[in-house]
Amino acid sequence: MNGPEIQISFAPALALFVAAPRRAGRTAAVTDGVSTLGHVVESLGVPLTEAGELLVDGRPVPTSHVPAAGEQVHVTGVPRPQHVPGAPLRFLLDVHLGTLARRLRLLGVDAAYQSEDIGDPALAAQSARERRVMLSRDRGLLRRRELWAGAYVYSDRPDDQVRDVLERFAPPLAPWTRCTACNGELAEADKDAVRGRLEQGTERTYDVFAQCSACGRVYWRGAHHSRLEAIVDEALREFGGAAA
Ligand SMILES: [Zn+2]
């Protein structure tokens, strides 16, 4: 490229996306004079889902801004918590985030996920159709224009991933209200109605039952839930919950 030269800097939160020499502060970037600032930022490695404001000489500009020579550009990180306007907060997770999907469901957060890989175009279309925030560690997927909204998942450890999503979006928590297998909503079920689906030991020992309104799976409170209860307790302690 051989066009206008700008000076650009990135918030520390964005350091992992940009090449090492750009992490410390302001550096020069040569643009082509027609590409938008959004495109320039993406081409330097930062998904626009992760950019908060684009500031030119201290003033916010839209991603469609075409940079001119000598402009000083600063890219901020997204505010936390981040407000996603226009729809109830719900998520769509890519094929690599199954554990995160189940944990979000456990906390009552609407988290669509399929264990087979339907491909980036289909995921992006689903995000747009169902107005779901796409969660992924794949920057290519997060660049797709069709997305309703998207967010990069910063860690590959499920414990940290849950904290990242709860801290970033502050979704209302309602533990034990959603099917961890299919994301359907749970309804209370009495023992007689679900008797045929229970194993004998379960039937004798446990009394609190819920059933998924979508797939029919039966849930009960039992000792084997202690690990899940620990996950729920920790999330509620850190992030609260309206229905807790
Ligand atoms: Zn279900």
Distance between the amino and carboxyl termini: 56 Å
Count, helices:
8
- The succession of helices and strands, N to C, reads EEHEEEEHEHEHEHEHHEEH
- Report strand %: 15-25%
The main sheet comes to: 5 strands, mixed
Indicate how many domains the architecture comprises: 2
Mean pLDDT: 92
Parts with pLDDT < 50 across at least 5 consecutive residues: none
Unique ligands: zinc ion
Determine the structural class based on helices, strands and strand pairing.
Answer: alpha/beta
Bulk shape: elongated
Question: Radius of gyration over alpha carbons?
Answer: 22 Å
Q: Give helix % range.
A: 25-40%
User: What strand order characterises the main sheet?
Assistant: 2-1-5-3-4
Q: How many distinct beta strands?
A: 12
Describe the structure.
With 244 residues, the chain is of the alpha/beta class. The chain has two domains: 5-77, Roll (Ubiquitin-like (UB roll)); 91-239, no CATH class. The protein is 27% helix and 20% strand. The chain is built from eight helices and twelve strands. It has helices at 37-43, 98-106, 120-130, 139-142, 158-169, 191-194, 200-205, 226-239, and strands at residues 5-10, 27-30, 51-56, 59-61, 72-77, 91-93, 111-113, 133-136, 149-152, 186-188, 209-212, 218-220. The protein has a five-stranded mixed β-sheet with strand order 2-1-5-3-4, covered by helices on one side. It has a four-stranded parallel β-sheet with strand order 7-6-8-9, sandwiched between helices. The chain is elongated and about 75 Å long. The site of zinc ion has 8 residues, from loops.
